[in-house]
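Friendly challenge for the regulars: who can give me the structure tokens for this chain first? No prize, just bragging rights.
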Amino acid sequence: MRMRRLPNRPRRTATALAAAVVSAVVLTAVPASAATGGPGVGDPYFPDDGNPGYDVSHYDVRIGYDPARTDRLDGDTTVTARALTGLDRFGLDLKGFTVASVAVNGAPAKTFSRTGAHKLVITPARPIAKGTTFTVRVRYAGKPDAEGWHTLKNGGAYVSGEPHSATSWYPANDHPSDKATFALTATVPDGWKVIGNGRPGPETVANGARTFRWSEDSPMATYLSTVAIDRFTVHRGTTAAGTPVITAYSPDVDIDPAAEAEQTEILDFLATKFGPYPFSSAGAIVVGATKEPTDGPVALETQSRPTYGATLFDGSVVHENAHQWFGDSVSFKDWRDGCLAECFAQYAGQLWEEHKGADLDTGFYRSEVEDNRNDPSFWSVRLYDPGPGRELDSALYFKGSLMLHALRRTVGDEAFFTTLRTWTHDHAYGNASFRQFEALAAKVSGKDLKGFFGAWADGTVIPPEKYLYPGGLGGV
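First reply, four minutes later:
Bragging rights claimed.
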């Protein structure tokens, strides 16, 4: 699920951190003229996000943070990108912070300035030619933005948020369509631990501080990047396929060995439905109470290592790990396509219940349809292009999971699961649209599904009976 926030509790450290840290920088094109790359990537819901003038290949994000001083994060980020057009000026997305310096290809920028809600506009010393690979390094410091950076009761912190969270702690081309590999270097007082995406690298200690390194070698959408800082207890295991599973617990959360074992069972089960697990590591970050209570979500599918609040339980673990295939490995092209993540992750929960013995036809499906048959609001939100502000609407979860079960009964199990596995294989580590999924489902099944998807994905009323109760679902 796209639940976001989690809480934590812990202690203090008086060690002052060596400040400098290198954090990833992203270019974000600025208004007007091809030489700036454009005002945004063109997302209809978030038109100011990102920049179409370049493609980021890698973020090198370095931060320093002392939990005894929660109002300051030191960042030094370097972004590697390729210019898709000539750039004499460009921008990157970053909220807050004081920017101390910007360098492009190692040379100080001619100018840099802030504009709008989250743009850092950069004029390099020399224009960047189309097709050129270049680097941007930004050094900055200040209080991280609370949209994505959540402070724990003991001063520790974690990052979780959707649609936005990356720009609360590093500069980025902040749109899911520009995915990149990611390296994190984080320095904290000795005694604290840092968990990130991907696999851990070497740890070093110097002057009372410990530096942790994490690397995600599969392309990642910016909102899926994370860092978590606490006095974690860390457990390690493997899936049946040999994927390392790293699970970190804050000091104030319960550790349930049975739930942790079930996490691995769930990963193995999902692989039988969706294809091989797509990343080099798996696991969880389970955080405790935040400094300031929030109404935010309690879990998010941060890539390779979902973040949870307070505890692991099967419903949430199934949902967030299903996202590793649907949303993380195969990401949507723009925020109209959110069903490609949420509809599928929610239906994964039904597949897990079926695996445990539930009858989805008579239980989940029929009861959900009949409970909501006379509620127009339940059916009123489109699953494709639900509208600005509704990109994570509850319809994507509940109406969306019904749609997928109806599709399964329309095309049959063999075509349905072949479609899912083909989708995750053909679009792995890339981006795709919901319309592409519709076309694939029709191709694999050999059926004309225009009426079905028109009623379910584009419709704003309860689907006609032939689409509502197809195949073996029967009538009422």
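DSSP finds ten helices and 24 strands in the chain. The radius of gyration is 23 Å. Your move, everyone else.
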